[in-house]
Amino acid sequence: MSTTHARRWLILATICFAALMIVLDVTVVFAAIAITGGLLLLGRQPRTPGARLDVPGVAAVSGGVFCLVYGFSDAATHGWHAVSTWGFLAVGAVLLAVFAAWQSRAAQPLLPPRVIGDRNRGGAYLTMAIFGSGLFGIFLSSSTTCSWTS
Asked: How far apart are CA 15 and CA 22, in angstroms?
C-alpha cells in the first residue's frame, strides 16, 4: 500500500470515527433526558406490596421468542431443510406454549389470560403479531439471498 492510500484510509477512518462520536453524543443526550424523566416520574409511583417478577414466565417467553427469531434467521443462512432451523422453531413454539400454560397458573402473571381473552385487546395483539411477523419476513427476504421456493 502506498503512502497516498494509507493517508486516504487514515482520513476516512478519522471521518468515520468522528461521525460515530457525534452519533454517540446525541445518544447520550437522549439517554440523559430519559434517565432524568424516569427519576422524576417513577419515584412518585407507590410500590405495590407483594409484587414480584414472574421469573419462570420471563425465562420461557424470552427463550421462546429468541428461538423463533433465531430459527427464522437460521433458515436464511442454512435453508429450510436444516435440522437446526426446525429444531429452534420447535423449541421456540414449545417454550411459548409453556409460557401460555404457566401464565394461567402464575400468582402474578406477566400477561394475564383475561387480557388476551378480551376481544378488543386480543384482536389488537393478534393484529400486531401478524404485522410484526410480516415485517420480519420482508426484512429477512430482502436482506438475504434466501430462495423461498427451493
From this structure: 11
